[in-house]
Amino acid sequence: MTATSRRLVAVILAAGEGTRMRSAIPKVLHPVAGRPMLGHVILAAADAERLIVVVGPGRDDVAAYARSIRPDAIVCVQTERKGTAHAVLAAESAIADAAKAGIEDCIILFGDTPLIAAKTLASLRGALAAGLTIAALGFEARDPTGYGRILMDGDTLMAIREHKDATEAERAVTLCNAGLMAVDAQQAVPLLKRVKNDNAQMEYYVTDLVALARADGGKTGTVIADEAEVMGVNDRVQLAQAEAAMQSRLREKAMRDGATLIAPETVYFWADTIVGRDVMIEPHVVFGPNVSIADNVTIHAFSHIEGTSIGNAAQIGPFARLRPGSEIAARGKVGNFVETKNAKIGMGAKVNHLSYIGDASVGVDANIGAGTITCNYDGFGKFRTEIGAGAFIGSNSSLIAPVTIADGAYVGSGSVITDNVPADALAVARSRQVTRDGWAKRFRASKGKDKA
Ligand code: UD1
Ligand code: MG
C-alpha cells in the first residue's frame, strides 16, 4: 500500500497553558501571518480523514476556532496536564474509533509549531507505510538543551530521552525530538495505555511509545526535518521568530510563482494572500486577510491591502489603502492616498489621487478626480454611491449617498452632489464665482498699505 492510499487520523495537542505568552488569549490562537498557529497546523494535516484537537478545560474558544477551520474536528478535553501521552489519551475513544474504522496512520502534532509542512507529515506517513510502527520527527538542534534526544542505532530509533532524564553522554547528542510523531493507528491506544510516569517530571511521555513499540518487536525510525520548520512557540519572542520564518516562506512562494518583489523583506503577506504571475510588488507593502491579485498587476510602494481582489494589469498605489470588499477590475487604477472600502472599481476606471470611495461602484473607464469623497455615512446608516461607465467626476467633489451618477455624466469640480445625475448630463453644485475688479487694491488702500 502506498502512503497516499492509507487513511489518517491526526491528533493535535493544544492543551498547553502558554503561560510564557503572558496573554489572555490561548497560545495556539496567537497569529502567525495573521492565521492562528492552530490553523496552520490544522491545514498542514488537511489530509487527515479525522482530525482531533485536544484542548484544556474551558477552552471553548480554541474548540470554536478549530471547528471554524475544520467543521468536523473532534474536540477532546484534557482536564489535567499530566504530559504528552496523557494528552493524547484524552482522545482515546476517538483514536480507538478511527482504528476500528480501519484507519492505518495516526499522527500526533503540537498546536504551537505553526511552520510544520504537509510534506513532512507525508514523509512520516511514508515511514509507516514502509513498515515502521513509529516514526519520530528529528532535527539537528543548534542548542539541544531542553529537547528530548533521539537515540539511534544505525537506522533504528532506539529511544527518545527527555533532557531531564538523559545521562551526560545522551545529552551530548544533538539530534533532537521535534515532538511530532507518526504511530501505527491500530497500535496507538494499546501502546499509550502502557505509558508510565516514572521519570524526572512524573509525566506521561508520548516519547515512551518508542521503547514500548520496540519491546513488542515493532520497528521504529526517525524522519529528519529542518530546525526552522519544527520550531515551537512558547513566548512572544519566539512568536516573532516564527512570523519571520513564515514571512520568508510566503515571500519565496510569491516569487517562485512569478511575482517580482524588489525588497522582499519589506513585504508582509497574510497566510492566504494569492499572488498571480508577472505581478510587481514594490517595497513596504502590507497585505491583510483575503487578498487575491491577478496577473500583471503592479502594487506600488507603501500600500496596505486587505479583503480585496485585484484584476489583471491593475495598478495600485503608491500609498493606497484598499479595505475589505474592494474589487478592482482589470486595468483599474487606484493611486496615491486613495482609500476604498466595499467598492467596485470597474475595468479601466481611474481613482488616481486623494479620494475615499466607500460603499460604491465605479463603472468601466470612469474617471474619479482628485479629492472625490463618497459621503456614505450619516452617523447611523451606510448608503451607496453608483457611478456609471465613462462618468467623469471633477476634482474635490462630495457625492452624498445614496446617489447615482449615470453613465457618461459629468460632475463639475468642487460639487456637492445630493441628487441623481442622469446619463450624459452635467451637474454643477457649487455657487457661481463672483469677480470684483480692483477689489483687492481698494482693500489694501483702506488698510493704508497700497503700494501700487
Ligand atoms: C516535548 C517532547 C520532547 C521534544 C519537545 C519538542 C515529550 C515528552 N517531550 O517536550 O521530546 O523535544 O516536545 O518541543 O513529548 N501538552 C498538552 N498536555 C500536556 C502536556 C503537553 O496538551 O499535559 C502539549 C503542549 O501544549 C505542547 C505539546 O503538548 O503543545 C508539548 O508539550 P511540552 O510541555 O511543550 O513538551 P516539551 O517538554 O517541550
Ligand atoms: Mg515544548
Question: How would you describe this protein?
Answer:
The protein is α/β, with parallel strands linked by helices. It folds into 2 domains: 3-224, Spore Coat Polysaccharide Biosynthesis Protein SpsA, Chain A, CATH 3.90.550; 253-427, Hexapeptide repeat proteins (UDP N-Acetylglucosamine Acyltransferase, domain 1, 3 Solenoid), CATH 2.160.10.10. Helices cover 22% and strands 29% of the residues. The strands form 6 sheets. Strands 13, 15, 16, 18, 19, 21, 22, 24, 26, 29 and 32 form an 11-stranded parallel β-sheet that branches. Strands 12-14-17-20-23-25-27-30-33-35 form a 10-stranded parallel β-sheet. It has a 7-stranded mixed β-sheet with strand order 5-4-1-6-10-7-11, with helices on both faces. The chain is elongated. 46% of the residues are buried. The structure holds uridine-diphosphate-N-acetylglucosamine and magnesium ion (MG). Uridine-diphosphate-N-acetylglucosamine (UD1) binds at residues 13, 15-16, 54, 78, 81-84, 86-87, 110-112, 147-148, 160, 162, 176-179, 205-207, 232.
